[in-house]
Structure formats: structure tokens, C-alpha cells
Amino acid sequence: MKFTTKCIHGSDKRYDTTGAVSVPIFQSATFMHPGVGQSTGYDYSRLQNPTREHLERTIANLEEGADAMAFSSGMAAEATLMELFSPGDHIIASDDLYGGSIRLFQHISAKNGIETTLLDTGDPDALKQAIRPETKAVFVETPTNPMMQITDIAAVAAITRPLGILLIVDNTFLTPYLLRPIPLGADIVLHSGTKYLGGHNDTLAGFLVVASEDLSTRLRFLYKTTGACLSPFDSWLIVRGLKTLAIRMRQQEATSHVIAQWLRKQPKIRTVHYCGFPDHPGYAISQKQSSGFGAMISFEVDSEVTARRMLERIRLIYFAESLGGVESLMTYPYLQTHADVPEEHRRAKGVNERLLRLSVGLEDAEDLISDLSHALED
């Protein structure tokens, strides 16, 4: 079955006897038992719910994983993931990450005795040198947020797998439509389902997809214990969003390429970070491991005044956090997504007062360019 068809038809509807085309919303906290020691397969919605189960099976199918778990947000998924580790464990992570991930690692995980080393995971030699006996995982974001750095997943897997180190990949930016990390050697895939998977800026969700039954067992124990599961209604919203994932990603990527090329020609734009440029350092790796470049663009303007003026002048594009929806959004990472990242770290990665991040939506490219052009005017 082709990817687009999988998005629409999801998984088997083993719970359904009505013939409903739309997946029903099983808005129930609990389920009756036929008798003592008997179950319909559903007992309590924190453990499993038929609507959420259909979504999880669909995501696992799209990512080519053994199982998937749906959470109330991407950070809920990541926080539960970190419960796999114990005090004294060490994790290596990409040094250009979503600010919420860095906040989790440097505050909550550090408090729990888990040490994190941030480095360029696209540099295999640096990665090898950072590995210790207590290293339990490598956490990769590719492309990174917001500087669009690329990591060769298969190359990292060749390092981690022989050592029994887990390889975790945040696939939020590209989704399984453009990148499937598990066949490349990843053990766990993380998503903020709020973004492209839902696609409509109307609900929060997160996912963990695992490559093995062992990891499924370990994480499902944590999942039911910590309880950050996705509600039936929000599960239904993500199921609905997934039906158009392929066509949305295809169009958003095409528009982003047009926008990125236009931005490069503007006098007030100093640098454009976009994976689809042939001169991007990670272009060759992207071509090898993914089927596209996504719809995220970061760019640095000539001054803080220009950056703030753009955010105040855009009208069609919304000045808002988040990404991946049908509406185009512009974000100011320095004061929004990465505000809690230490100043020195932010500036070292290029996250400064002049950097803006654009999530390209489904509007017409000419309309978006018109909006950006107006925002850049003197």
C-alpha cells in the first residue's frame, strides 16, 4: 500500500462493526468487562482507547515501526521517553535543538541525574569522542530547529548500534512522508504531532514510535504509569489531519522552495537556512536519506529593527509560535522557542535578534511573497 493510501485508510478498524467511514470518537474513560478475568481489549482509556489505537497503528505503519504511542503533546512524549534513563546515565544530543528539548535536558533531566552533552551530531568523529561507558542514547534532530543542520542517520546508527546505544530521532520537521528514520537504523522516533501530522494548528499531540517489541513493552509501561495519553477527541483530530498529510507536505515543500529562493535575493536578508539549496552543507545527505527538504526556512535579516518590523507588518503570515499547519507562521526564536536556552549557547548557534523562522503553509506563493515584500519595505 502506497504512503498516501496509508494516510487515508490508516490501519485495520478491528473495533468497528458499523461500517463508519470516519473513525468514531470513543469518548469513554472506561469500558465494561464481559466477566471476571475477561476484557473486550479495552479497559481504561489511559491504557488504550479504540480511537487512539487506530491513530497509533496508523503512525506506526507510516513510520515502519513496531508500535507507536500517542501523547498529549510532543513534550509529554519526550518527558516520558526520558524515563527510560536512570541517574548516572549520559545522553548525547544535537546542539541545535528545539528550545523545549534543551530545557528538558538541562533542567528536568539534569535534576534527575542524567547528563547531556550537546554537539554537532552531523560530525561522526565528534560523536565517537563524546561516547562514554555510561552513554545510553544519542538524540538527533534533523533538520535541526532552527538552523536546519543535517545529520546522517545511517552513519550515526553504524556508531550506536554495535555499542547498544539507543538512537532517537526527532522527525517533526520532515514527517514520515519525507523521512523514515527506523529503516535507517533509528530505535525510537519522536514527533510533535501538533505540527505537520495534525496540520491545522488546532490541537496538541506527541508520538513515540519504536523499532522493537522490547522498547514497546518498556515504553508502554511508562506510558500507562505516567498517564500523558492523547484524548479520544484529539486522537480523532490527528487521524483527520493525517488523511491529507502527503498532499499538504508536497505542496508546502514546493511553496517553501519558491519562498526560499525569493528570500535569498532580498537586500535586507543576510542568510537563508534552507535544506533544499544545493549549496547547503547537508544537501547531499538529505538527498540520500529523505525524499524531500520540508517546508521550514530560517533567515537572518540585516538588523534587529528589520526583524521586529517584519513581525509587526506581516498580515497573511501570522506572528505565532508552532509550525507545520496550513497557515504560514513566523517565529522569533530568540524570544520565543529558544528563550530559555542560555544566551551563550543561543548566540553560538546563530540564534540572535536578527533570526526569524518561517513555517510555510498552504497559501499561494505569490500571496506569501507579497506579504513578505511589504514587511521588508522601508
Short description:
This protein is α/β, with parallel strands linked by helices. It has 14 helices and twelve strands. The protein has a seven-stranded mixed beta sheet with strand order 1-7-6-5-4-2-3, with helices on both faces. A five-stranded mixed beta sheet has the order 8-9-12-11-10.
3D architecture notes:
The termini are far apart. The protein folds into 2 domains: about 5-240, Aspartate Aminotransferase, domain 2 (3-Layer(aba) Sandwich), CATH 3.40.640.10; about 245-375, Aspartate Aminotransferase, domain 1. By secondary structure, it is α/β, with parallel strands linked by helices. Helix 2 packs parallel to helix 9 (about 230-240) and helix 12 packs across helix 14. It is built from 14 helices and 12 strands. It has helices at about 5-10, 50-65, 75-80, 100-110, 125-130, 155-160, 175-180, 215-225, 230-240, 245-265, 285-290, 305-315, 345-350, 365-375; strands at about 65-70, 90-95, 115-120, 135-140, 165-170, 190, 205-210, 270-275, 295-300, 320, 330, 355-360. Helix content is about 35%, strand content about 15%. The mean pLDDT is about 95. The strands form 2 sheets. A 7-stranded mixed beta sheet has the order 1-7-6-5-4-2-3, with helices on both faces. A 5-stranded mixed beta sheet has the order 8-9-12-11-10.
